[in-house]
Defect at low temperature protein 1
Amino acid sequence: MAFRTSFADIPKLYVPINRSDLPKPVYELVQAGLSRTASIQTSAKPLVDQIPDSIGLGKPHSTFEGLRFKDAAICTIAALEEAVCKISDHLERDCRMTSRGYVMFLVDRGVISKDIARFYIDQYEAVRFGNRPMGELEYREFMKLFTALIRTVGVLT
């Protein structure tokens, strides 16, 4: 009971933070702990070179910083549709059409290369429906493939 009454007597709005509030050894101990914490905080930085590629995000301080590779790769189908629709509005994707169906639709119309399109859609579906995160090297290769596909848009017609 004595502890509770003593504890209740401590003012709740008062925090002993000044040098005069604490005995000198206690104050020095607190200051040493605070300065140690501050030095740890300033020296704690991510080790950029040791971040693995397979986490699915661009490394800090790189050209892909903060980029989610899988999300960016999935958006390529919309970019393909946009590029194709610049040629003709008749090539717009039907809302019920799958990604594979749309790419094959474009191949049948002679808008994009058949070989590149098949390779692209296989890679696209592996990324979209796969459980493994996409690494930076995989993303670069996928985007090279996508760039090659986009370059064939309209060339074959």
User: Anything to note?
Assistant: The first helix runs from residue 2 to 8. The CA atoms of residues 72 and 151 lie 19 Å apart.
